[in-house]
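Convert to structure. Protein one:
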Amino acid sequence: MENLKVESNDAKDTSVDMKLEVIIIPVSDVDRAKKFYESLGWRLDIDIANGDFRGVQFTPHNSEASIIFGKGITSAKPGSLSNLVLAVDDIDTARKDLISRGVEVSEVFHFAAGPFNNSVEHPRVGGRDPEGRSYFSFVSFEDPDSNGWVVQEITTRLPGREWESKPARATDAATLAGLLRETGEHHDHFEKTHAEHHWWDWYAPYLGARQNGASSEEATAAADRYMEDILHVLPR
């Protein structure tokens, strides 16, 4: 097997930031697909219907890229996507989590000729990568339409495979005070209508959403969803 070749660009980076944001998933039954991706524990961002259009967006936990599916979005054949890749730092833990959620998952495997190399006969070999290398161990599963997902274990990224993060811009005291006051006002309704909880768990997603450009209504929805879906703080 040839060694994995690492390529890097040492030239000064002058590129415009361009992040992979959304992948469109073709499905035949929107509600069935929504139920499936909810079962994965992914964050439901939107479910919007307008006439013959419906758009549903989910984001895998801690992912910066999302998926969108629905009605009137794509003419691609349902189930026509394959090898959609999810990265995890522990393939065995990820597999157990998927199984616990009722998902049919393959056994752990590696590629005989290297990651994603399907050019050889019998490309997939059962078991983890014998050398325990990062990028080399996988499991796979499908959604109800047979869109295929591959989960790849990445424990250590190769050199040059992570962008340098830009330092967050500091918020001045007056702006932060105003935002905290606003957060408290919007949290008041949730606190009165839901079970006992830590206020900071609601504040965190609200503040994060507002600082990322969401409206107060969108931030409230995001915080409520986080509390109910992730922390399971339900109405009284």
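Protein two, convert as well:
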Amino acid sequence: MVRMERFERLAAAVLTCFCVPGMAQQLPLAPGAQVTTLSAAPGTWSEPGVAVNLLNPQQVVVVFQHSAQAAYSRDAGHTWTLASGVTPPEYRVSGDVSVVFDNKGHAILGCIAFDRLGAFNYWAKGATRNGIFLKRSLDGGSTWEQQLRTVIAQPTAPGIPFEDKPYLVADTSKSRFAGNLYVGWTRWTLADSQMLFSRSTDDGVTWSQPIEIARDRGLPRDDNGALEGFDGAVGPDGTVYAVWSERDHIELTESHNGGQSFSRARDAIATAPVMFAIQGMERANGFPQIAIDPRGGNKGGPLYIAWSDYRNGEIDIFVSASTDHARHWGPPVKVNDDPVHDAADHFFQWLAVDPVSGAVNVVFYDRRQEPRSSKQIVVLARSTDGGRTFSNYAWTATPFDSDDVFMGDYLALAAWGNRVYGAWTYREGTEKKTSVQVGVADFSQPSTPAK
């Protein structure tokens, strides 16, 4: 077992006071909070993913880059071990990772792999061989198959596209499509950006030819105007819901035949721009996530979409709910509970709905303590009333600086039975290196009140 720095159950005596001009707010610590540093030593670690095995909720896996790494827990996040044999040796770089557990209890890690990027934010210009690949663990994340499974691969050649930002989705329902694996991603070409989708019906061994699921194509740079930020959710009846950002809207489409084809994509939610500047950050975004409460009949309960934008000047986190299976969406609810126009940014949100309790959970970076700096803490927000109101909890107590380091493009979140697992990029001190941490919160325990 790799020795890892652990912050066991943040001391109840440690209370976090957030002060900005004209107000003072105190957040309780997340109940049962435990934070563990997974990366063995600081480096260039970022962009984690996390998943819980629904067949055995004691098994939890966190993945991160770069290159692709994984850690696993066999005791619901109390202890963690770094896995070996995860990084694909065939390519120089592997990243943009995500992870799911399928309906067989297998952990599936998805990633991109390449030798060299193209031009700055124009990844298809001068791209070398690249593609989307996955590795499987058949024992809960302890060991990983050596074989690198291919979703799509591009050989080095003039004018090839660059496949980017894939995200895996697993159908763990009882529907006729149970066991299917899905992945959506952005394809960058010299002329545009495309939203692509592929599926596997044999546990990730082979993948279908990709299909385009957007109505239109976007601009060709990794910036506003592109098609980016795919995420998906599967209902109890096997319906696949997919979302992404397209200019000033979150787009949504559905598949009712196991990902073979999709409805015409439509505008679901209007947003302000979701690519934005953050003080001290190389880049930041508010790409959407979608999740479903699987309880509530054949089609399941409410759907939720989370995103962030700067409609209020500062960057805030929002959630919208649909109670009619994505036909209509309710007004945006602000998740971070500090006052509007306090100039504090909140960003890199991730959404997870607890399939047991139906609680809506959102993790994000939060700068309400020091809005004029590049320091943030990690906050967990939770709603138990269908996304109408959110309670905010501090998952980390001491602000950390993100100035002049790459913090990645996203955080990670998963939930099961009132236990919530989050993963994020963390920087300790002023060294220009980062680590990945995993946090556990247990809402079967009372939270520590602020004083």
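The longest strand covers residues 303-312. Residues 1-24 have pLDDT under 50 and may be disordered.
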